[in-house]
Structures are given as C-alpha cells and as structure tokens.
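#dry-run=false #mode=assembly
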Amino acid sequence: MVNPVRPSRVQEKEVQADLAKLEMAEALRHGNVYEVMKRLPAGLTIRDFEDYMSDQWRTFKSQIMQEGSAYESEGSVHEPHYSDFPMHGEGTAMTSEEGNEFMKGMEASLGGSGGFKAMGVKAATEDEGAGAEAGSGYSELEGMAEGTLDEWQGFTDEMWNQIFDAQLVEDYEKKMGEIQKDVDRIIALAKSGQADPEYVLIALAKVNVTKNGCLMTWLGKKAFMNNAMMNRVADELRVAGTGDIGAVYDAQAKTRDGAFQQQLVMSDMQKVMQDVAGVLEQVHGIMGEINKTRSEIITKFSAR
Amino acid sequence: MAEEKPEIRGKRTQIIDPTPARRKHLTEVLMDFLEDRVSLAELKGISRENLFRLADAGFTKFKHGRLDEAEKIYQGLILLDHRNAYFHAMMGAIHQKRGRPIEAIMEYGQAIKINKIDVSAYVNRGEIYLRHKNYKKAAEDFRNAILIDREGKNLWSNRARSLVIAIKRQMEADRSGGRRPIVVR
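#status=ok
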C-alpha cells in the first residue's frame, strides 16, 4: 500500500466558493443590502448572500459568546432516557396473589418480619432507623409509586386537553383572520357592483367550512387521545395477564368509558359534517335561485 | 380460610393457574430473582414506561431542589429495579447534594458496576474523592471518564478534564503548604 505524499488538489468548487465570498463582501462594502439584492452580481443568488451573512453572524457570535455550557455542574446526572431502562423479560410478571404468597414466603424464610429489606443503599440517618419493616415500607412505596403515576397520568391528560383547546383557539383565530380580509374585499366588490353576489355566498360558505374544519381537527385530536387511552388499557391488561379477573373488569370498565367518549366525539363530528353539508346545500340552492331569477328577467325582457 | 382473607393486600381477585407448568415457570422466575437476574418491577409487572415516568418525575424534583421527594421516588425505584444503573447514579447525586459522601460513593460504585460507561457516575465519584483529598482515586475516575469520551463531546467528561487541572493545582498547593480551595463549579 502506497500512501500519497502529495497534498490533495484543491477542487475548483472550493476555489469558486472562496471567490464568491470575496465578491459578496466587495458588493456589500459598496452598497445597501437591498440594492445589492436587487442587482445581484453574476453567478450569485439571494440564497448565497443569506448563507454568507449567516456564516458571518455565526463567526462573530462564536467570537463573543459561548453556545451552551462546556461542562456539567457538580453532582449532576443526565435526565432519564429510554435507553437507560433495559427491556423487561417476557412472562416474568406474577399475579398479585402469587406476589403476596412470595412475600410471605420470603419473610418466613428470612426469619420473620423485618428480615426482607430494600436492596438499595439507604442513608443511615438518625431519625430513619435502618430497621423499618420491609412489608410496610414496600406497601408505602408501592402506594406512593402508584399515586405518582396516577398523578402524572392525570396531569398529562389534562395538559393534552389544554393544549388541544389552545390549539383550536389559535388555529381558529389564525384562519379566520386570513379569511376575514378576503370576505371583506369580496363584499366590498359586490357592493360596488364589480362582483356577482354568488361570490359573496361562496366566501361566506368558505368561512363556515373553515370554522367547522377547525372544530373537526380538534375533534380528530380528541378521538386520537381516546384511542391512545384504549391502547393503554390494552397494554395494562397485557401486563397484568388475562388470568387477573380484577384487571379484566377494570379494563372492561375503562374500555366501556372510552367507547362512550369515542361515540360522543363521533356524533360531534357527524354534527359538524352535517352543518357543512347543510350550508353548502343552502348556498347551492340560493345560487340556483339567483340564476333562475336572472334568467327569468332576461327571458321576460327579451319577450317584450 | 376465612381468617386469612383480611390479610390479603391485593384488591383484585385472581385465578392462580394450578398447572405444573405454571408452578415450574414461577419457580424459575423466583430463582432468577434470587440470583439477581430479574427485578421486583418485572415480577410485579411494572412496565418500563411506568418506571421511566417515575424516574422523570423524580428527576424534575431533583433538578428543582426538591431533594426529599426525589430521594423517596428513587428509593422506591431502586427497590423496584435495583439493576438499573441510572437509579443508582441519581441516588448518588441526591446523597452528594445532601452532603452524604459515603452513601454517594457507594451508589456511584453500584452504578459503575452495572454500567461500566456511566460517565456522570465516574466524574461525580471522582469529584467526591477530590474534595476529600483522595487524589489517586479521583484521578483514576477522571481518567476513566475522559477515556469514555475521547472526542470531548460529553459535558461530564469535559468536567473531568477541568477537574484534572484542579487536582494538579490542589496537589501543588498542598506541597507548598497553602490551602487552596477547589474552584470548579
């Protein structure tokens, strides 16, 4: 194997890029940015100028301030990531009765209560004696974990609802703001006789459809959330196993509730769609009516 | 039988499959648990997602200085899954912040034992050694942390790099008889 000893040749592209940068710097030195953009030097585009200026910005910024911290602070740990949690083995879960039997067996084999303790390193503080009973500690922690999870779940559900509502309002305001200008313009044209009244009808139908479109999106998201909830119930049931009658009943109740919610969402969707269809039909009817009247007028005039 | 009922903690009614195959499977699972191959979370059927959510809640509390609550959550998590390096590293950080260096070193040691490339555990443990003037062990931990990330992209590894300089300064200060505080924050 022979290693190349000569330095690699500079490609024409690199040379051209450097020359283009010089050319851009020169053009910007002599004139206003907007004027330079209007009369671009040959072979350069607005994109090249934007790239050049963003490069310059980055260079100047990096000379003055540091982006992000260079190292972490004392006693800090990164936030949890899914990769920190190894996959669980399949079929290792016990039913809660089996679990209770197991705990009893462990306690008995380790010489009564207090023998079976947590497997973590616990701080030996004065107020917290190391002899706390494992059973009560375990149930307390289990209760706390379940409580925190429920709290978390409730919080995320509530948060999603709030987000969806906020998105609906924002989407609605944005779209209505855009459409309002068009409607105003069309009404003004119709009033001055420059546009036919059909256009006003179409514009108003568009307003209605946009409004209902926003509602439809919102309902779609609600349906998605319900679906996610149902999936979660199915996952929980999979973990608990179908041998657990309590879990099955629980899942059944949750699924029933989810199905009911989904039905409500679907009926709302149907209502929205009916509203859209009704408005379109009405507009269609009115337009037909206008045309009919117009043709009648023309016929009667021509008959005279 | 009737007297035993109130003792049962579970709220649900279960069907225990009495087949010999199920018994054999359970025995194997319990043996795995006793030999540290299966965690309590796996036995209890607590999913990774739920453990992650709890860890995330604990991390948020830790980040905002609510160490008592974070400690309780991670104590519970370690009980549920003592084979997770992240839980031990977090517990170490909590002990470190609460001024319990021995417990912190033990937790970091546990985290490193499980995950040999846990940079934050190496750096945090090394820093505790450094503050207690155990320069040899501190340098060893910083060396490991730096070797894990040779490119200098990891923030903890970069901290180790700056702490190596702090070791040198501290040793020089000790030699000259003066006491110089470690200033890397």
